[in-house]
Amino acid sequence: MTVVTSKITKDLIEQSLDYAQYRALIDQLLKENKTTGTNHSEAMMDYTRMNVQRMKRWDKTSIVSEEASAIVKKLERKQVWLVLTEAWCGDAAQNISYIEKLAAFNDNVKVRYILRDENLAVMDEFLTNGGRSIPKLIALDEETLDVLFTWGPRPRPLQEMLVAYKEDPKGVSSEEFKKNIHLWYAKDKNSTLESEFKALLTQ
């Protein structure tokens, strides 16, 4: 991959959060009736609460196949998988638990989290179709910070569904479409996500 990023520095990575810190931040904000970012509306709070439940469920139920874990175990280069996210982001909640479990098979891989709205300069180097879509994972060489690959904001079939929906909703409401997305995640059980990471890690 020839992406060059000038906005991701070692200082930024040092200040980023690991998964436990990210989850603790969300829990603390919820106690204060807040979420990440600047919009603390009841709708955003509801999304955040739902996402905590989603992450708890995936923490317990997501499974990494032997084939995928074997690929990760072979990684010799020290990597940082930097994830741009926000607590209210439904796609983040559906995917990052699995990504955490996958990375855990190799000490050479660290997953770190930064908030999109506090890091727009980074986000703007990794747009999706011109949009600040999250989650966005940027895999970096730990020493050089060269970009090895990127993933996000969601598995490809869902991204294609979203693009088609935006072009022609066909009478489906936004809430119904979101419900369909989360039903897709529940049925897929991270299998598409795993396939995409197997391809990225063996390219």
Radius of gyration: 17 Å
Any idea how many domains? 1
Task: Name the poorly predicted regions.
Answer: none
Overall pLDDT: 96
* Assigned CATH superfamily: Glutaredoxin
Kindly report how far apart the N and C termini lie.
10 Å
Describe the structure.
The chain is α+β, with helices and mostly antiparallel strands and 203 residues long. It has one domain (10-202): Glutaredoxin (3-Layer(aba) Sandwich), CATH 3.40.30.10. It has 9 helices and 4 strands; from the N terminus they run ααααβαβαββααα. It has a 4-stranded mixed sheet, covered by helices on one side. β3 (136-141) and β4 form a beta hairpin. α3 packs parallel to α5 (90-103) and α4 runs parallel beside α9. It is globular, with a radius of gyration of 17 Å. The mean pLDDT is 96.
Briefly characterize the structure.
The chain has 203 residues and is an alpha+beta fold.
Give the helices and strands, then pairings.
Layout: H1 10-15, H2 19-31, H3 42-61, H4 66-73, E1 79-85, H5 90-103, E2 109-115, H6 120-123, E3 136-141, E4 147-151, H7 156-167, H8 174-188, H9 191-202
Parallel strand pairs: 1-2
Antiparallel strand pairs: 1-3, 3-4
InterPro entries: Thioredoxin-like_sf (IPR036249)
Pfam families: Thioredoxin_9 (PF14595)
Protein name: Thioredoxin
